Amino acid sequence: MPSQVQDAKLAILTCAFEPPKPKTKHKLDITSVEEFRELQKYEQDKFAEMIAQIKDTGANVVICQWGFDDEANHLLLTNNLPAVRWVGGPEIELIAIATNGRIVPRFEDLSAAKLGTAGTVREKTFGTTREKMLVIEDCANSRAVTCFLRGSNKMIIDEAKRSLHDALCVVRNLVVDNRIVYGGGAAEIACSLAVEREAVKETGLEQYPMRAFADALDSVPMALAENSGLSPIEEVSELKARQGRGEGRGRLGVDCMQTGSN
């Protein structure tokens, strides 16, 4: 079967790809080779009808929640109809949503209006174990993105997942509320200056806890400067002087990466 299908029309099935079975208990006795051949021919005819019904709707890819036996595999290959079996319930729902398709619980309900659409359906092989993954791209209702993370061991992959999750949360928060707090201790320096200005106006004992709070705020940029290999006292003093002159409007912080930009 082809490893890639362009302009895919997906038939999304949650019914078993097999001949119909009686709803009650039954027993079938086969006493001769001819009877076995008749049973085999019946199964082949039913599989052929099911495949023809799928192709008549215009579908060129089948996504099935259940499996199908070797006879069905052979007929699918003969009719050049790619199919994916044992697709889990949550995944099949996501595929239906992304492709604007309808999940079909019975073969009799299958129609062209219930097919999902995608630009490309392809099989991707990766890793040293040659694991396979199905990639469905350019979907009709594509509002989701799959991030594929790889690493030499589970610990590295877990760390990459946490970093990616943090980055996505930052983007989400900016979409919800685009107000930001500048880093590098810029916000702490601005708050420290503001508290110091108010402390000067106080004549009583209140000025001392206010000055102590301002000094506590300075500990954040001091620690950043020290951890970056800079002189903490000189760096913070310079930043406070520049912010005090009105430079940056509270956006000047410690240049931790020493890129020449605060």
Structure description:
The chain has 262 residues and is of the alpha/beta class. It folds into two domains: 4-146, GroEL, CATH 3.50.7; 186-250, GroEL-like equatorial domain (GROEL, domain 1, Orthogonal Bundle), CATH 1.10.560. The chain is built from seven helices and six strands; from the N terminus they run βαβαβαβββαααα. It has helices at residues 33-56, 70-78, 89-99, 154-176, 186-201, 207-227, 232-244, and strands spanning 4-13, 61-64, 83-84, 103-104, 116-126, 131-139. Strands 1, 2, 3, 4, 5 and 6 form a six-stranded mixed β-sheet that branches. Helix 2 links the parallel strand 2 (61-64) and strand 3. The radius of gyration is 33 Å and the shape is rod-shaped. The model has no long low-confidence stretch (mean pLDDT 85).
Tell me the structural class. alpha/beta
User: Biggest β-sheet: count, sense, barrel?
Assistant: 6 strands, mixed
**Number of DSSP strand runs:** 6
Radius of gyration: 33 Å
Amount of helix: 40-55%
Proportion in β-strands? 5-15%
What's the CATH class label of the largest domain?
A: Alpha Beta
Low-confidence stretches: none
Please tell me the overall pLDDT. Answer: 85
Number of distinct helices: 7
Instruction: Spell out the helices and strands N to C.
Output: EHEHEHEEEHHHH
The general outline is: rod-shaped
Summary?
This protein is α/β, with parallel strands linked by helices. Helices cover 45% and strands 15% of the residues. Strands 1, 2, 3, 4, 5 and 6 form a six-stranded mixed β-sheet that branches.
